[in-house]
Specification:
Number of strands: 17
Shape: globular
Strand order of the largest sheet: 4-12-11-10-7-5-6
Helix content: 25-40%
Mean pLDDT: 95
CATH architecture of the largest domain: 3-Layer(aba) Sandwich
Number of domains: 2
CATH class of the largest domain: Alpha Beta
Number of helices: 12
Distance between the termini: 64 Å
CATH topology of the largest domain: Aspartate Aminotransferase, domain 2
Strand content: 15-25%
Order of helices and strands: HEEEHHHEHEHEHEEEHEEEHHEEHEEEH
Radius of gyration: 22 Å
Largest sheet: 7 strands, mixed
Length: 388
């Protein structure tokens, strides 16, 4: 017995499970597009924590609503009435233009995608899914399976029936769908983790036509591209399409965990087919309502379109760039050299947060409230670092 205990002690280590590469920076407060670390160093945030910060850090309306709600009730189960859910659904439908869709609330983008896939399978009675090369849809079981990255798939995740085809290749899609084996096609209107690649307008429209023809559920994964980031409420709205299911998360709660799916009236509901413990709780709903309030009152979708165009315009004059891609404030800058060194210089010398995708792509996903003056600070720093 003693030997077993000693052996266990040798292999046991406490603390956090070591799965992240961490910079030696600890943000402790933030406002708007600015973050301060534990040493009171000020940073410009052009990444928004993976596109999560939509209306700016600690917006006064947002924080006031959360504080007020905490004094009332934080949580109760979905077995009772919660009028905040209905209020959120109504406001979301009005602002997104999806007034005929129903809302199911959960806690994250991955969970939302899981529920979208389950719903598609319930509706069609089928289980095969068509996804796209370089896609990323989350890290839970089915979400990982439909993400084109074997390095994050455990053997347990590999039992799902998923086929990947190239983005914007309608012939490849048609070849698969005419087998009549598919429950769903899932697409990011703008692929984020892949490096900001846009699904062409004509392609998305043809995709919906094929899904309608073959009775396949079309799922638009707007986890990163939704909530005004693209310069439209949803990025698929650049095309004339109405997906059967729209998946949301990141910018939805401005940092408070919330996700959801908007569901077409053509999809049938029945009691118990979907469920969640924490989804749609009082605090999450208030956070999401506050976000919609601010987006509307401060015209942040229009600002995203305007500032995104300005940012892309200013980048045209910068050295070391191979290609610029994106819509609104979802921008990918493909560099001629690898990005890691530039990213570190921007972070540690100029104190600017940016994001990466693959080896040579910079992702810019700032709060939708960013100003020209803040963009100019970034452009000056970018030029300085790339011209050295």
């Amino acid at each position: 017995m003693k030997n077993k205990k000693q052996e266990t002690n040798k292999i046991t280590k406490g603390g956090l499970f070591d799965v992240y590469s961490l910079w030696d920076i600890e943000p402790v407060r933030a406002k708007g597009c600015t973050v301060w670390d534990a040493n009171d160093v000020e940073y410009l945030d052009l990444y928004g924590g993976h596109a999560v910060i939509s209306i700016g850090h600690t917006h006064p309306h947002y924080t006031a609503m959360l504080k007020k709600q905490i004094d009332n009730i934080v949580f109760y189960s979905n077995s009772v009435q919660n009028s905040l859910q209905g209020h959120l659904s109504e406001k979301l439908g009005e602002m997104s233009g999806c007034t005929e869709y129903s809302l199911f609330l959960c806690n994250s983008g991955a969970e939302a995608n899981e529920n979208a896939l389950k719903l598609a399978s319930f509706q069609t009675g089928k289980k095969k899914v068509l996804a796209f090369n370089e896609a990323f849809h989350g890290r839970t079981s089915a979400a990982v399976a439909i993400s084109d990255n074997p390095s994050i798939q455990a053997p347990f995740n590999m039992g799902h029936e998923v086929t990947f085809v190239p983005l914007n290749d309608i012939e490849a899609v048609e070849k698969e769908l005419q087998t009549n084996d598919y429950a769903a096609v899932i697409i990011e209107p703008i692929q984020g983790v892949a490096g900001i690649f846009i699904a062409e307008t004509e392609f998305i429209e043809q995709l919906q036509a094929l899904c309608n023809k073959h009775n396949v559920i079309l799922i638009a994964d707007e986890v990163q591209s939704g909530y005004g980031r693209s310069g439209k409420f949803f990025a698929h709205q650049y095309a004339n399409v109405q997906p059967d299911i729209i998946v949301m998360a990141k910018g939805m709660g401005n940092g408070f965990p919330i996700g959801g799916i908007l569901i077409s009236p053509s999809i049938d509901a029945r009691k118990g087919m979907l469920g969640t413990t924490f989804g749609g709780n009082h605090l999450a709903c208030v956070a999401a309502i506050a976000v919609l309030d601010v987006i509307k009152e401060e015209n942040l979708i229009e600002n995203a379109a305007k500032m995104g165009a300005y940012l892309q315009e200013q980048l045209q004059d910068c050295a070391g760039i191979k290609e610029i891609r994106g819509e609104g404030l979802m921008i990918g800058v493909e560099l001629e050299a690898e990005y890691a060194e530039l990213r570190n210089k921007l972070l540690f010398e100029d104190h600017i947060f940016t994001g990466g995708a693959k080896n040579n792509v910079m992702r810019l996903l700032p709060p939708l409230s960013i100003s020209k003056e803040e963009i100019d600070i970034f452009i000056d720093a970018f030029k300085k670092q790339t011209q050295q």
